[in-house]
Write a structure and sequence with these properties.
The structure holds two protein chains of two kinds.
Chain A (H helix, E strand, L loop, with lengths): L1 H5 L1 H6 L7 E2 L3 E2 L1 E2 L10 H14 L9 H20 L8 E4 L2 H16 L5 E5 L8 H10 L2 E5 L9 H8 L5 E5 L11 H10 L3 E5 L11 H4 L3 E5 L10 E5 L1 H6 L10 E5 L2 E4 L13 H17 L1 H20 L4 E4 L9 E6 L4 H9 L3 E2 L1 E3 L4 H6 L5 E5 L6 H18 L1
Parallel strand pairs in A: 3-15, 5-6, 5-7, 7-8, 8-9
Antiparallel strand pairs in A: 1-2, 4-10, 9-10, 11-12, 13-14, 14-17, 16-17
Helix pairs in contact in A: 3-11, 4-11, 5-6, 12-15
Chain B lengths: L6 H8 L12 E7 L4 E9 L5 E9 L2 H14 L4 H4 L4 H8 L6 H19 L3 H10 L1
Antiparallel strand pairs in B: 1-2, 2-3
């Protein structure tokens, strides 16, 4: 099967944590990469090496360590800029994570450019991180929020989206891939439609950037946000990509060191991009780790990763469909990434997750930071198994067998 | 498969004796665990001496939270509210036969007690008079 040609065992050998045993002698079956991905040795080593050999603050200091640390940090930015197809490194702003990236746009761009009565279009399948920042803004500035509905099959209703665009929104923000349904939205088409009515578009790429090739120029995205930790990198570091002309015109987000060119007692001149939006000492080791993660993914190849995950997803949907009483929410395999959120009749997701844990299988239970989406389907919670490049078909067999055992226990 | 899911918990989850609603009731309390969306409502009927005569719970949640609610209500029927107020976390965990729950599942196990206590303590004057009864 394609798991062999992809060389998943070689990939697994790169991830130290995957050799860990749980609950006595059960191998770890990690099916929670949508929450956070595991880290390959190259990422762990890059950060370890930075602290052992290079540690210094960046963009100041002329000593050797500071020069080297600055060069490593900026090299990581170059690598990440190339990874997403940005025109220039000045369009790649380091933040803490996707959430902070979206908040940066809400606090800086939107506060400057939106006023009372303006419209923002979101969707019903957004993660809380692409809802709450806009709710805060809407409350403060009397902005109207509208939501592209999700169909019963778990896809966006594009006709309804087209109709909503007639409201002439200033901003359209949506996820490229749902963290619950796995749905991969037709981002390129949706961005084109939004641009036709003059809207600026923000893409939440937290789930897409780790799993398939995301090219900001091909998409024509105006803003695009993602996090390192979901793509084999460390926690605490993310990116906001922004079109240069938009970023240039935006006021700073956080004030402090490094984001200024000049400061007097009563005023400041902001620094050039991208430093204008990077106040204070950044997460230097994490940026370097992020660079190593992107390098790792590129070595394997995003297209190969996407194809392999597709194999896993098709297999998982097949195996899960054999379990009576189990229902997966979301579209069929060809329209989704490696996320299977499901319900099992008569058994609460927390009980399922707990019992799977006792078998060494890590899944997530709850609303996955998408309460409105769960309400849309009338579900208080789901259990979510998600896959990444290091998962195997055998692990999906373990999952299916453990679910049968869980059912038997509840009889 | 698991010692957490002992027979008593599965049994009370699958065949709860106190599941339902009481309409009318003397007291009705409701709360949820925002983290996982578990939700429990407890209805009580009491006699003139504030003794629980009937109890019922409704809502949704995991086996631990639902079994816990059933066992808790089973233990309070016939008791005066003043005594119900004194039920501790440890008492309920004893009823469940669980002593090593992690912090996340502890919230599930104790949701019913939280609802019941917040309800009784939130009754204002009635709650105050219960305190006096105890003295």
């Amino acid at each position: 099967m394609s798991s062999h040609s992809f060389g998943v065992e070689r990939v697994r050998a790169d991830f130290p944590i995957l050799s860990r045993a749980l609950q006595g002698n059960k191998p770890l079956v990690y099916l929670d990469s949508t929450a956070t991905a595991q880290k390959p040795l190259s990422v762990i080593r890059a950060m370890d090496d930075y602290y052992r050999n290079t540690n210094a603050n960046i963009h100041r200091g002329v000593h050797t360590l500071a020069e080297e640390a600055t060069a490593d940090y900026e090299r990581a930015r170059e690598r990440i800029a190339a990874f997403i197809g940005a025109r220039s490194t000045s369009e790649v702003i380091f933040t803490r994570n996707t959430t902070e990236s979206i908040n940066l746009v809400a606090y800086s761009w939107a506060r400057k450019n939106l006023s009372s009565g303006d419209v923002i279009i979101l969707t019903e399948m957004e993660h809380h991180s692409n809802l709450v920042p806009w709710q805060i803004l809407a409350e403060e500035k009397n902005i109207r929020l509208e939501f592209t509905p999700v169909t019963d099959e778990g896809e966006l209703n594009l006709q309804a989206y087209q109709n909503l665009l007639e409201l002439r929104p200033k901003l359209v923000a949506f996820t490229q891939m749902s963290n619950v349904l796995g749905t991969i939205n037709p981002a390129e088409e949706m961005i084109r439609m939004a641009h036709e009515v003059g809207a600026v578009v923000l893409i939440d790429a937290a789930q897409s950037a780790p799993h398939f090739k995301v090219d900001v120029q091909k998409l024509k995205a105006d803003f695009l946000a993602f996090s390192a930790h979901k793509m084999c990198g460390p926690t605490g570091i993310g990116v906001l990509y922004g079109r240069r002309d938009l970023l240039e015109a935006m006021p700073p987000f956080l004030g402090g060191g490094d984001m200024i060119k000049k400061v007097t007692l009563r005023g400041f001149t902001p620094n050039e991009l991208p430093h204008k939006f990077e106040a204070g000492t950044p997460a230097i080791a994490e940026v370097i780790g992020f660079g190593a993660a992107v390098e790792y993914l590129e070595q394997i190849g995003m297209d190969q990763i996407a194809a392999y995950e597709h194999t896993l997803t098709r297999y998982a949907l097949d195996r899960l469909s054999e379990i009576s009483g189990l229902k997966v929410i979301g579209p069929p395999a060809e329209k989704k990434g490696g996320v299977c959120s499901f319900t099992l009749e008569g058994i609460h997701p927390h009980d399922i997750a707990q019992l799977l844990d006792r078998e060494g299988i890590a899944v997530r239970a709850g609303h996955h930071c998408a309460m409105p989406l769960h309400q849309r389907y009338g579900l208080p919670a789901t259990t979510r198994a998600s896959f990444y490049l290091y998962n195997t078909l055998e692990e999906i067999d373990f999952l299916a067998e453990a679910l049968e055992k869980t059912k038997a226990l509840f009889g | 498969m698991d010692d957490l899911y002992r027979e008593v918990i599965i049994e009370h989850y699958k065949n709860p004796a106190y599941r339902g609603v009481l309409e009318p009731n003397d007291f009705s309390f409701e709360d949820e665990n925002p983290l996982c969306g578990d939700q429990i409502r407890i209805d009580l009927r009491v006699d003139e001496n504030n003794r629980v005569t009937e109890a019922a719970f409704s809502g949704h949640g995991c086996a631990i939270s639902q079994a816990s609610a059933d066992l808790l209500l089973e233990s309070i029927v016939g008791k005066p509210l003043g005594e119900v107020k004194k039920i501790s976390k440890e008492d309920l965990l004893d009823l469940l036969g669980l002593d090593n729950l992690g912090p996340v599942r502890l919230k599930c196990a104790l949701l019913s007690l939280k609802v019941l206590k917040a309800g009784i303590y939130g009754m204002g004057e009635v709650g105050d008079s219960l305190d006096r009864d105890e003295e």
